[in-house]
Amino acid sequence: MAISQQLKEKIDRLRPNFPTTQALVIPMLHEVQHETGMVSEDSMREIAVFLQLPLMKIREVATFYTMFNKKAVGQVHYQLCSNIGCWLNGSDKLMHHMEQRLKINAGQSSTDGKYTLSEVECLGACGSAPVLQVNEDYYENVDLPMLDELMQSFSSKINAGEKYIGRETYNPEVWP
Ligand code: FES
To answer: Are 74 and 114 spatial neighbours (Cβ–Cβ below 8 Å)?
Structure first.
């Protein structure tokens, strides 16, 4: 079973707040990703059964949005926007720097499972390009010194055994 009973109960509590069952697909995909780190094919099947919707209704949403990881990612998932606003502000240089530093290319994960580097579509914060999303947090107006500082900080924490999910509301005791 890919999805916990606890998560299903949470979705059941949300049901009255949503106009249709279909409207629960995105919240449930988010919850599944938060719980398991990704949205696998098995998870999609389980969501379809749980929500009593055709599998295609789940798959079409999960595959449309790049924010849903269809395969396992590292503990720290760097997602750098490469669309025009960010590209004009130097995202290509940032990507090159990250590839050098992590010794992987965009679209790959490190063999130790610590890092994944992804090039993603517009993150919707073009006014403060270039934008980097790390797990569930945004970093805006990123330049090389800031990037180095961030990467060093994540590296230190991961190497010290801390768990990083992102968004302090999800894990407030670990990341103040
Ligand atoms: S172009 Fe990068 S956030 Fe929109």
So the answer is: yes
Cα(144) to centroid(ligand 1), Å: 17
Task: Convert the pLDDT of each residue in 11-61 to its tens digit.
Answer: 999 899 999 999 999 999 999 998 888 999 999 999 999 999 999 999 999
Same domain (yes/no): 80, 155? yes
What is the Å distance from ligand 1's center to 122 Cα? 4
Decide if 95 is inside a domain.
Answer: yes
What residue owns the CA closest to ligand 1's atom 1? Answer: 85
Residue 91 lies in a domain: yes
Q: Which of 126, 128, 133, 138 to mutate to test the pocket of ligand 1 (most atoms within 8 A of CB)?
A: 126
- pTM beyond cutoff 0.85: no
**Domain extent at residue 101:** 76-159
Structural domains counted in the chain: 2
The verdict on residue 174 lying in a domain is no
Distance 99 CA to ligand 1 centre (A): 20
Q: Is the dihedral of CA 29, 32, 34, 40 positive or negative?
A: negative
Q: What is the pLDDT of residues 3-14, one digit of tens each?
A: 899 999 999 998
DSSP string covering 99-111: HHHHTS-TTEE-T
